[in-house]
Amino acid sequence: MENQKNTVPGAIGLATARSLPIALLRARESVMGPFRAMLANAGVTEQQWRVLRVLEENDQMDPTEIAERSCLLLPSLTRILQTLSEKGYVNRMPHPTDGRRLLITITPDGRAFIASNMAESERITARLQEHLGRDKLETLLDLLNELDGLRL
Which residues contact 133 (CB under 8 A, 6 or more apart)? Predict the structure, then answer.
């Protein structure tokens, strides 16, 4: 890395190898590859899995909260919730005090689906931890979570 140039002659800014947005995208693709294969075999998309995981951690939520915590746009979430409802993984019910809002819960079938795929998810994560080491992985997660809260 020492010999790698930080800039490209005639270009503006850092070389792409030292660009944080590009490095984050490359890292995301490296990490998500094995997870995508797992999810494809399970019959769900990355986005559907994220929604189910978020709902599993919280008993019931409104769509705006789910969208925020699962990094989705609300219009996309609406379609995802429809699909997950059709699969029997979530329930959509009217809010008890505000008829304009919905509350979403994960069903027992949704929890069972997550449980049936969690071992493979944990194996993938364990391989990542073997590669990086526990300390580096924990530091990486801490730094990424810190960046998530950053408002530039």
Answer: none
Question: Taking a C-beta distance cutoff of 8 angstroms, is the pair 13, 21 a contact?
Answer: no
What is the token pair recorded at 100?
Answer: 């304009």
pTM of full prediction above 0.85: no
CB 89 within 8 A of CB 109: yes
- The CA distance from 48 to 67, in Å, is 11
Beta strands in the chain (DSSP E): 60-61, 90-94, 102-106
Q: According to CATH, what is the number of the domain 16-148?
A: 1.10.10.10
Residue 15 near residue 7 (C-beta atoms within 8 A): yes
Angstrom distance (rounded) from CA 20 to CA 81:
32
pLDDT tens column, 57-77: 998 999 999 999 999 999 999
